[in-house]
Amino acid sequence: MAANRWRLEGQLALVTGASAGIGLAITRELLGFGADVLMVARDADALQDARQDLAEEFPEREISVLAADVADDEDRRAILDWVEDHAEGLNILVNNAGGNVTRAAVDYTEDEWRGIFETNVFSAFELSRYAHPLLTRHAASCIVNVGSGRASPPYAAARPTA
After folding, report:
1. Is the separation of the CB atoms in 105 and 93 below 8 Å?
2. Domains of the chain
3. Ranges assigned E (strand) in the chain
4. Which residue of 17, 66, 122, 149 is surrounded by the most CB atoms within 10 Å?
5. Phi, psi of 144 (to 5 degrees)
6. d(CA 147, CA 78)
7. What is the pLDDT of residues 124-157, one digit of tens each?
């Protein structure tokens, strides 16, 4: 196998939910493979701390941060405007932002379940749609959608809880 097979030099990645957990780990891996990374998360302080740590670990890479909430459509549009300001196109989009409030389905308020869908579903779809023109500027671009959480049987939301 060629030593440079998995290198990403010259490529730009956008990672959402990038300040901690899986998003931070993905960001670190992309930087390790040579990509420059645009990090997005809601918590500006955590994002800046993560950026500083990564910049020390990968001083040769370009790392930029933007505090934004992917559940907000205006923020999603601002994220893609910000990406356009950084480069000619985008090579990798990682839709990692997500979350959950765990309770029986009948106990969610309308705002809670709509918020979960806005963050976990609509944000990934809309960011992918908005990023499409930037991604198509490169022959080898990709979208990675990350999901996590504990699995439950499909009937878990409908069954009565004790």
Report:
1. no
2. 12-145 (3.40.50.720)
3. 12-16, 36-41, 63-67, 92-95, 142-145
4. 17
5. -120, 120
6. 23
7. 999 999 999 999 999 889 999 998 765 454 434 4
Residue 19: in which H helix or E strand, if any? none
Task: State the virtual CA torsion across 128, 9, 26, 129 in degrees, nearest 10.
Answer: 0
Strands 36-41 vs 12-16: parallel, antiparallel or unpaired:
parallel
Nearest to 84 by CA among 141, 144, 130, 145: 130
Alpha helices in 58-109 (DSSP H): 73-86
pTM recorded for the entire structure: 0.87
How many residues are given for the chain? 162
CA distance 107 to 5: 49
CA dihedral in degrees (80, 94, 23, 77; nearest 10)? 20
Kindly tell me the sign of the dihedral angle through the C-alpha atoms of 36, 40, 44, 47: negative
Separation CA 132–CA 148 (nearest Å) = 24
43 close to 17: Cβ distance less than 8 angstroms? no
Structure tokens at 122: 């609509």
